[in-house]
Design brief:
alpha+beta; Cytochrome Bc1 Complex, Chain A, domain 1; six-stranded mixed sheet; 15 helices; globular
């Protein structure tokens, strides 16, 4: 019988996730390893994660610029030699700094790992923070900062972070030219030596990894000349002290206003995280969400609007973000709260709930599609002392949560009186 292409194939519900757990062991110097030996392609990714984020700074911007300067030269290699060597082998090295962690990730064809590991280890162990390179990086960063401070989105984000996380928090301080000017190579080197240490490191390996690769990694990362420094795990974190506020930042000549609304929340270890993850998706977390349908599709007041939950090692927050015509921000804010109230008063229809369930189960499948995605996703669990069970729990919640449970979560967490608001660019 010929295939009738006018008839769509039947939809199949996703009943469960298939998650490949990593092999876990330690290098001889104590570094925990999470090995995701998966896939048929001859590629390998190494990610070294350090507790070296903003929480641990003794000076503003110290963490981000320490991580940024790792590519700018080592005892063995100048910056252009590092870049040329990585490019020569078609590899990618990514540097990232967040609130609590910093990381260095090498992605390469497996056969090039022996040639690239010495360069990677020189970056991790022997960065020398050359003054002339720091001067250039700081100058470029200051120019970018001055441009950003003219953008309503940046102004709103900066002000919102202060309202939610605390005006003096290491998480939320504003970048200022004076902080750039105060950075020195000595300050960056001290942070590097204290925090980029085997005793403060976790290693995630993904891809097609042979025994020879594992032995090579052990040889380089357990080199006894890479000294372990006792890491002070205490941080500058203090619980968020939040009093809801409304902040208007007018800007003459603006044609758009940046709107940010939100409140402090918990992180992914909280019992209500999975349920609120589902609720947020329906409210503003995907293209078919209520905020998007109302404000973009039906009213045409914005090109993009979304809500999200941000999880941090200590705490977290919820926020709504959009940019709108300068004469429409009040209407947009009203509609945002109207959609919150609907979640309090009306049960979510089963058809809408089913659409969100199917969407999120597809998203979760993508999280575990291949070695690199699986490693990246489970890294986000292990750094919170969670494991794959966390994602099985989320999947089960997505499949089974009821409209009544979602309504109760909305009444508990998505409450107008708990929200702070920032509008940058609109008339006061």
């Amino acid at each position: 019988m010929p295939l009738n292409r006018a008839i769509a194939p039947p939809l199949q519900a996703i009943e469960a996730l298939r998650i490949t757990d990593p092999e876990q062991y330690h290098l001889s110097n104590g570094i925990p390893v999470y090995l995701f030996n998966m896939g048929e392609q001859e590629v390998v990714e190494l990610r070294l994660v350090f507790e070296a984020g903003r929480y641990f700074e003794t000076q503003k911007l110290q963490a981000a610029f320490t991580n940024r300067m790792l590519r700018e030269g080592t005892i063995k290699y100048a910056a252009d030699q590092i870049a040329d060597r990585i490019e020569h082998y078609g590899a990618i090295v990514r540097y990232r700094c967040s609130s609590y962690h910093s990381s260095i990730t090498l992605s390469t064809v497996a056969r090039h790992l022996p040639a690239l590991l010495p360069t990677l280890m020189s970056i991790i162990r022997e960065a020398n923070f050359p003054q002339e390179r720091l001067d250039t990086v700081l100058q470029n960063s200051k120019q970018k900062l001055l441009l950003n401070k003219q953008r309503n989105e940046y102004i709103a984000e900066e002000a919102f972070n202060k309202l939610i996380l605390g005006n003096d928090s290491h998480l939320a301080y504003s970048s200022e030219v004076k902080y750039y000017d105060a950075l020195t190579t000595d300050a960056l080197r001290a942070f590097y030596q204290q925090h980029y240490s085997p005793s403060n490191c976790r290693l995630f390996i993904a891809g097609k990894v042979s025994e020879a690769h594992q032995q090579l990694i052990e040889q380089h990362l357990s080199d006894p000349t890479w000294a372990a420094v006792t890491h002070n795990a205490s941080s500058t974190f203090e619980p968020f002290q939040h009093q809801p506020q409304q902040l208007r930042i007018p800007k003459e000549g603006s044609v758009q206003a940046a709107v940010r609304i939100g409140c402090p929340l918990f992180n992914k270890t909280h019992p209500d995280y999975a349920g609120l993850f589902m609720l947020n998706t329906i409210y503003g977390g995907y293209f078919g969400s209520r905020l998007n349908v109302n404000l973009r599709e039906e009213k045409g007041l914005t090109y993009s609007i979304y809500s999200a939950m941000v999880s941090m090692v200590k705490g977290g927050y919820f926020y709504i973000s959009t940019d709108v015509r300068v004469d429409a921000w009040k209407q947009v804010v009203d509609e945002i709260y109207r959609e919150m109230e609907r979640l309090h008063e009306e049960l979510i229809p089963e058809e809408e709930l089913l659409t969100a369930r199917n969407y999120l189960m597809g998203v979760l499948l993508g999280y575990f599609d291949g070695a690199f995605n699986t490693a990246s996703t489970l890294q986000g669990a292990y750094l919170y002392d969670l494991d794959a069970a966390h994602y099985h729990h989320i999947a089960n919640t997505i499949r089974t949560i009821t409209p009544i449970e979602l309504r109760d979560l909305a009444r508990k967490y998505l409450v107008k009186e708990k929200m702070s608001e920032v509008v940058a660019g609109g008339n006061a």
